[in-house]
Predict the 3D structure of the following.
Amino acid sequence: MQSTKTEVTQFAKDVKTGLGKVPKSVPSKYFYDEEGDRIFQQIMEMPEYYLTRCEFEILEKQTKNILEAADTFQEPFNLVEFGAGDGFKTKLLLNYLVENNADFTYHPVDISASILQELKKDLDESIPSLKVDMLNMDYFAALHAMKNLNERRTVILFLGSNIGNFHYHEAADFLRKLANESKEGDMLLLGIDLKKDQKVIVDAYNDPQGITAAFNLNLLTRMNRELGADFRIEDFSHYTFYEKETGEVLSFLKSLKEQKVSVSSIDREFQFGKDEMIHTEISKKYSLKELETIAEQQDFEVINHFLDSKQYFTDTLWRIKK
């Protein structure tokens, strides 16, 4: 799917800024073109990628407890989901709500128009009575949109450990903005990958099949196609490592030789040294103590941590205090 002119302009601007810095970087949101969406579906099915299975277990086995704790059957509400993706796990909650006559409208938020279109088609077929209003925008734009939906109470879903794509201080800033754009009594169900054995984490982001590598390298292909860049994909490799103290998995594209890359849409040329990196993604892991600290600092009350059987993952439910 081709990006709109506005999207390409912002993409070009972010690439110009990111590749012009030291160290170089490109925002991870640009992973998700149509091909990126397809590869990420493969990632979620990998045996090494435990995150999806662990969260699915939580939502499947504890659906009733989660939704009752979030007071979803007391009055009409908005259900806003940041980074909705294909809705695979969320449908566990949606089906239960619809089957038990909850009065709500589902507002999935995603930067990828193609994945939202697929989600809408799927929901129209699988849950035809569900009221859906799609929000094709990034998280920060969605915060403002959420505030202006209506006067109903809002339950916010931020699943899949998507908030792990922020550094700790960025996550705190996002949660502060979320609290400011919310009403007292609104709820947040936050999916978080927990700190655990280092090998388990590393294998999820550097699988032997090379699927995560293909996902990362597709970013170069997208820049070639949409921005007129001339990256030689074979001259870059996927590189990732885990910082145990911070709980951050960091992913990069590594230049395998000294080279120059031109990006015609911004009329720029970028020099790469051998082994020079482009930072593309962070995936931060948390302890339960860190979650409780950040919640308290940003005016949330922790209602409960819902854990999978391995205690690898939590869907933690918070109430906005104000």
